[in-house]
Design brief:
Layout: H1 3-7, E1 15-24, E2 30-38, H2 47-56, E3 60-64, H3 66-107, H4 113-136
Helix pairs in contact: 2-3
Length: about 140
Amino acid sequence: MSLIAALRPLLGSKTTRVTLEVSAKDDTQLIVIAKPITTPVPANASEELQHLMAGLSMPFKVIAEPDNIERELVAEITKAAPTRDDWSERALQIEAAANAASDTSKTTTTPSAAPAAEQTRDQDDDNASDLEELNSL
């Protein structure tokens, strides 16, 4: 499996990019860090969504000899894939629910001015009746 194919499971609806950092640990080993870059988290996001997105942003670090580095990186990513998929799916559910709630609040109509006008007329009628009653005394 190629390195690019190994990174593919990290990309999804919530992870838009992956950056790689490669450095030498010593004369025989390399350090590879794969950093998933997630979509921005809204400022008003729930605590659960913030935690999920932080989890999806966690880097993968592998230290191995050059001949084994890809295999070990693939193993780490493969091991984490089911959990990451669950987190991504849950984040999408939370965002969908928040968007639905936002859409519902936007489409909810405010009471029309007609009932308020009727109430004002009723109060005016009551005030006129009170005035007539006072005048009759």
